[in-house]
Design a protein that fits this description.
alpha/beta, Rossmann fold, 4 domains, 7-stranded parallel sheet, 6-stranded parallel sheet, 27 helices, binds adenosine-5'-diphosphate, binds zinc ion
């Protein structure tokens, strides 16, 4: 703790022992228990140490500085890169009756000044600031007058050039404790990120000049996320079908380019899906309107480039679909991590095609610097390993971050519905022969045409209808040959040139396959499985809702929507789906029972309890005899 504390505080200053922290957790945040690591992190923070937290998205990082802010005097300054992120966090804190505010460029000057004054008067336990604001003249003026308990640097990977969203403004934070006549020399710094590459982790500590930080690195396995890779044939139809099967759910669809985002969003709309686009080519107003609509539940689907996501805290995203191949695991992991933050099950689905891979390789070859090219190829290789894996996908996924996984996660496609591998050696030989006989001068699509005996003019002009390989693959559709080619590309038996023509040629190992000296297998089908098969203690318990529970859930959801609209906050700020599900199942009718619901603290009990309890009672009156036996609370 810093030793310049002078302001009296209305926060009780007793040492924060265990029971007291548990109590703060329930009364202020409504949570029953700490998540893994939260308690140890909070202890280190309260000891006044510098702390570095690496925890996946949805792991519950915010609580690690929010709860200490309530348990100690002074204000915790939170540095956060995005306005939307600050807004969401502060909304959620205020809904819990916690004294928090943000100051950033979205405020008019009068409002900003009023909040700064309030901060100086000690009215906040948490104050959120953008980095450039904090280090500006006015920020320094403000800081000099605050009783700062500690600094929390959220999304701390933004300080690293090795990270994927480096922000130059963050660099200034390196000197955050300097100046001010040494007043902040002892103020602890907490750095939090979901990016776990060792290089970035070390760089964060170095850039922020952390002093013997207590380091906490949580596992990157998110057990409520189901990972699946599907072969991409007709991406739009495949995605539309998925969305229709999940019509009640909100989801994100990532596409590689702005044009694809626009086209996908437009076609989805034409097909009756409430979808909106998001990419850096839209003007600011449109972009934030669309993001707002998604967060506030007015649009079910957001179709986006990777520009979308940082600062989106929406906890009830039920699926993240990648319509195109991502370029690196780091980004892919972050993007899919936006699913299921509330801990309920969510899907992460990647549509993969060899053509996408070729496209990215082509782009990489355009890079000037050989080292950059090499690095980009390596990164893509890791993605391909993940996409092509026929074993547990968690191994390559979190292996990328240096974490070893034993496999058999129970929540990826290969574990839940293992692939049936079939021998495709004969067909692989046919394909390789066709590549060789046509002179290794053509793209795969042309080679497939020759194999399938196409009468295309180009084939006839080249007199490739005269070849022995012409038509020997007519018994199989093009998609099948695509799968064989994928297997050969992945196995390094076939390669494509890096230029725009993407012509196919044999590698030395490809020659051995062609000669019949090595075997090739492809995924023919998958075992059918009704539900994920967790091999560990069930992680995300989604208690099933009976039809009547479901009706009540919908009524509660409607009430939540109305209250959220009245208060101008996203629905999840009122209550998350986890809380509504528990209400629908347990049907509390007293304040005491209502407090037992996850996410209900004192403030929310007071603010929302009466309205929700009334809907629950009303539901019981309207539907006597339906649903579970109803026992009123004493
Ligand atoms: P992160 O910043 O690591 O992505 P958040 O801090 O946004 O994660 O937390 C993710 C979700 O988990 C939030 O909805 C939050 O309310 C919830 N949460 C955090 N800690 C707990 C806990 N101890 N018990 C239940 N829910 C929690
Ligand atoms: Zn698995």
């Amino acid at each position: 703790m810093s030793d310049f504390s002078t302001e009296p505080s209305d926060v009780q200053q007793a040492p924060a022992d265990g029971p007291r922290l548990d109590e703060l957790l329930k009364t202020h945040f409504g949570h029953e228990a700490f998540r893994p690591m939260q308690r140890q992190i909070i202890d280190a923070v309260l000891e006044g140490r510098d702390v570095q937290v690496v925890m996946p998205t949805g792991g519950g990082k915010s609580l690690c500085y929010q709860l200490p802010a309530l348990a100690s005097p002074g204000v915790t300054l939170v540095v956060s890169p995005l306005i939307a992120l600050m807004q969401n966090q502060v909304d959620a804190l205020q809904a819990n009756g916690i004294r928090a505010a943000f100051v950033n460029s979205s405020l008019d000057p009068d409002e900003a000044r009023a909040r700064e004054q309030a901060a100086i008067s000690g009215e906040y336990d948490l104050l959120y600031l953008a980095p450039e604001r904090l280090m500006s003249g006015s920020g320094r003026w403000l800081l000099a007058q605050l009783n700062v308990a500690r600094f929390a640097i959220d999304e701390a990977h933004c300080i690293s050039e090795w990270g994927h969203d480096f922000r130059p403004e963050y660099r200034m934070l390196g000197s955050i404790r300097e100046g001010f006549d040494g007043r902040f020399a002892d103020a602890p710094v907490i750095a939090l990120t979901a990016t776990a590459t060792p290089r970035v982790v070390d760089d964060i500590a170095a850039q922020l000049a952390l002093r013997e930080p207590a380091r906490f690195q949580a596992s990157f396995e998110r057990e409520n996320l189901y990972y699946e890779v599907r072969p991409k044939h007709k991406a739009f139809d495949q995605i539309l079908a998925y969305i229709r099967e999940h019509a009640d759910s909100d989801g994100i669809i990532y596409c590689q380019s702005r044009a694809k985002v626009e086209a996908m969003a437009e076609r989805l709309k034409q097909n009756g899906v409430n979808a909106l686009p998001y990419h850096a080519g839209l003007d600011n107003r449109q972009r934030s309107e669309n993001q707002h609509a998604f967060i506030y539940g007015d649009a079910r689907v957001i179709v986006a480039t990777i520009a979308f996501g940082m600062g989106v805290d929406k906890p009830d995203v039920r699926y993240v679909i990648h319509a195109d191949l991502p370029r690196h695991i780091e980004g892919y992991y972050q993007e899919t991590g936006r699913a299921g933050r509330d801990g309920l099950p969510a899907d992460c689905i990647l549509f993969y095609s060899a053509a996408d891979r070729a496209k990215i390789e082509y782009f990489i070859e355009q890079k000037e610097s050989p080292t950059e090219r090499e690095h980009a190829h390596w990164q893509l290789d890791q993605v391909i390993k993940f996409a092509h894996s026929t074993a547990c996908r968690l191994v390559p996924l979190i292996g990328y971050f240096g974490e070893t996984h034993g496999g058999d996660c129970g929540h990826c496609d290969n574990c839940v519905k293992p692939p049936n591998l079939v021998d495709a050696t004969q067909d692989a030989r046919k394909l390789l022969s066709a590549v060789a006989r046509t002179g290794q001068r053509f793209g795969l699509s042309y080679v497939f045409d020759v194999l399938r005996g196409s009468k295309a003019q180009r084939v006839l002009q080249n007199r490739h209808d005269q070849l022995s390989v012409y038509g020997i693959g007519a018994d199989q559709p093009k998609g099948y040959w695509g799968a064989v080619a994928d297997a050969l590309l992945e196995g390094g038996n076939l390669a494509l040139t890096a230029d725009e023509y993407r012509t196919a040629h044999l590698t030395p190992t490809g020659v051995t396959v062609m000669k019949g000296q090595a075997a090739v297998k492809i995924v023919q089908s998958r075992a059918v499985s009704a539900a994920p098969r967790p091999s560990k203690p069930a992680p995300a318990k989604a208690e099933p809702l009976s039809p009547d529970d479901h009706r009540l859930f919908e009524e509660l959801r409607e009430l939540r929507r109305r209250l959220a609209q009245e208060q101008g906050v996203p629905p999840y700020v009122v209550f998350g789906d986890v809380a509504l599900r528990q209400m629908a199942i347990r049907r509390p009718t007293s304040d005491q029972a209502f407090l037992g619901v996850s996410g209900v603290g004192q403030t929310k009990l007071r603010r929302y309890g009466p309205a929700f309890l009334q809907v629950i009672r009303q539901h019981a009156d309207d539907a006597p005899g339906e649903g579970p036996v109803f026992i009123p609370d004493p």
